[in-house]
Amino acid sequence: MNLEEINTQLEDELTWRQDEIRFLHNQLSYITKEDDKKCYRKALVVMLYSHFEGFCKAAFSIYANAINQENLTCSHVTDQIIASSLAIVFRDLENMNKKSSLFKNDLPDDRIIHRFARQVELINNLNVIWTRRVNIPIDDVVDTEANLKPSIMRKILYRLGLPHDAFNENEGKLHSLLNYRNKIAHGSAKDGLDEKQYEEIQTSTIGIMSSTIKMIMNALSETKYLRKDTVI
Q: What is d(CA 164, CA 135) in angstroms, rounded to the nearest whole number?
C-alpha cells in the first residue's frame, strides 16, 4: 500500500474543492448591496454542502479501494470489513424471494423454512467465506443517501471499521450546514446569510473534511482494518 500516493489522492480531492469554494466566495467582492450578498451566500451554502458530501464519498471510497487492493482474505480483516465485504452475501440471505430447492414444491410459501435453509447454506460456506478475498462494494457501503447528516456519517464510518464517533464533537456543525442547506431548499431561508454565519459554516465544514483525511491516513498507516492477531 502506497500511503503517500493515497494521501496525495485525498489532499487533491480536498484542494480542488477548496479552490472552487474560494473562487465562488471571492465573487462576493463584485456584489455591492448587502441584501444581494446575503442572497448569494445561500448559493454558497448549497455548493459547500455539495462539495462536503462529494468529498466524503470520494474520501471513503479511496479508503475502501485501498483495502480492496491489498488482496486480503476475510480471515485477515476486522469484523466490520468482513461484513461490508459480504454485503451481497447477506443481501441474498435476507432475500425473502430466494427459496430452497428442497422445499420449493411442497412448501413454496413457507418463509420460515426457506429463511432457515438460507442460513444453513451460509453456515455450510463459512470456511469458504474466511478464505474469500476482501472486496468492499463501495457504492453499497459508501452511501451518503444524498443527505449526509451525522447519523449517516456514523453509519458509513462504522461499516468501514473507522471510529464511528469520530465527529461527535462536530455534530452541531454538521447539523448547522445541513439545516441551512435544507432551509434554503425548502424556501424558509429567504433572507439569506450574513458574513459571520457563512464564514463559521465554511470554516467548520472544511475543518471536518481535513480531519477526515487525517482519520483515514491514521487508519491505513496503523492498519486498523486488520485483525489484531493478523501477521501479513
A: 21
Give the separation between CA 135 and CA 64, rounded to whole angstroms: 9
| pLDDT tens by residue, 11-49 | 999 999 999 999 999 999 999 999 999 889 988 999 999
Burial string for 147-178 (b: 16+ CB within 10 Å, else e) reads ebbbebbbebbebbbbebebbeebeebbebbb
pTM (predicted TM-score): 0.86
Cα 161 from chain centroid (whole Å)? 11
- The whole-angstrom separation of Cα 100 and Cα 123 is 15
Indicate the SS3 state at residue 19: helix
Planar angle of CA 196, 204, 38, nearest 5 degrees: 30
Q: Which residues contact 91 (CB under 8 A, 6 or more apart)?
A: none
Listing DSSP states for 91-158 in one string gives HHHH-TT---TTTTTTSTT-HHHHHHHHHHHHHHTHHHHHHSBP---HHHHS--TT---HHHHHHHHH
CB burial of 82-93 (b: ≥16 within 10 Å; e: otherwise) equals bbbbbeeeeeee
